[in-house]
Amino acid sequence: MSHTAAPSNGDSAGTPASGPARDHTGAPPTAISWRRILLSAVLGNTVEWYDNALYGILAVIIARRFFAGGDSTAGLISTYLALILSYAVRPIGGTLMGRIGDVKGRKYVLTLTIMLMSVGTVAIGLLPSYAAIGVAAPALLAVCRVVQGVGASGEYTAAADFLLEHGDRRRNYLSGLCVGSTSLGPLLASVVAYVMILAVPEHAFDSWGWRVLFLLAAPLSLVTIYIRRHVTETPEFQRVMAQAKAETVKQTPFREAVREHWLDMLRAIGLGAGQRIGSFVIQSYFVTALVQNGFGEDQALLAAILTYVVGAPAAIWGGRMADRHGGRRLLVAGYSVFVIFTVPTFLAIESGSVVLAFIAVVVFTVINNIIGGPLTTAYVMSYPAHVRGTASALNYNVGTTLLGGTAPLLAAWLHGLTGTDVSFGWYMTFFCLVSALVAGFALPKAIDEARGLPAAA
Length: 457
Known about the structure:
Blueprint: H1 31-57, H2 59-66, H3 72-88, H4 90-104, H5 106-124, H6 130-133, H7 136-166, H8 171-199, H9 202-215, H10 217-228, H11 235-247, H12 253-260, H13 262-292, H14 297-325, H15 327-349, H16 354-381, H17 385-404, H18 407-418, H19 422-441, H20 446-449
Helix pairs in contact: 1-5, 1-7, 1-8, 1-10, 1-13, 2-3, 3-7, 3-18, 4-5, 4-7, 4-17, 5-7, 5-10, 7-8, 7-16, 7-17, 8-9, 8-14, 8-16, 12-17, 13-14, 13-16, 13-17, 13-18, 13-19, 14-15, 14-16, 15-16, 15-19
């Protein structure tokens, strides 16, 4: 038996969102509690994407430390395979975490995800190398990536659920904040890596300096855990649980999500295809591409830092524009620009010009992040509250695994096959075109509803 929840604020077409959601006592969140709500979402995303970016930044070193010497391309591909493994478990982990969020609460699952991510990230900094323990080293690295992947599988959508259910107005703006926070982790990873590379001799950084960067996730995670233990559950989830208890309805969020909302999930995956690939190019491949095309590691990291500096304000601005003008318009325009600009980005990287490469990478990042706000709204708000955690985590992680998680490996393979990254640029262009068509003709209805407009056809 499916559970039909009462409509939530902002879920119905034409119902303008009024302000911060009230708790079960009817009182709106205080300024202090709202700051904790924002921090709980932002810091968790920071931890998740700190790990992802750091793994991409240090891919060359990880390949040397954890895989047998010889073919450097094979070692790099093996390193990216470990990254893909962490995404291969995401659909399963995301479904599990989403179901936990739908049954035990958004706050509960957010505490669980940050603990798993922290263990997986910090443990990499403690692993013995291939020279010390042989094939056990890459095996343990894979285990760490799986643990981190299970935690991360529920983090982004659970944080977005938590934030959007606490605030029922300007939802695309709040989604923009979620997207923007994913730039903070990579920015932190890039800055500390850049400082370490400059401050520590090359042999020392290759020997132990890189480990420090992974261990730095520990204090950030502890702060996040503390804040998440001191926030309130979302009012919307409290209402759903009270209704379920009163009606003695058995909760089956996965079954209902798959049976009744599969079309919305497919639409959301198609809608996010281009942006998911773009995100992983920014966070895991641009540094590698720049180094392979003759730029120094310091220049490549500086370019990465610039992308993360512009990423957060671009995402927030995109959310504001989506609330003002509609998610459909923003997504169609953004993806259309992406279709035109993706191949020239890789041509600029291969031009040898620092100025052209830096401009291309920064503009690519701005476009990718502007799209993120209304895209996140679609990921989360396309579903009723009682299946939202499961459905949003499932569609987000399936798309991220199949398209985003495989992007760095595919880019490295295509570069080895064709000798140019432009071939990968054409691959991404195709999926940006697919996403533009979905945005134009099959947009999930939740995006324009998030600002109180009639549902898109």
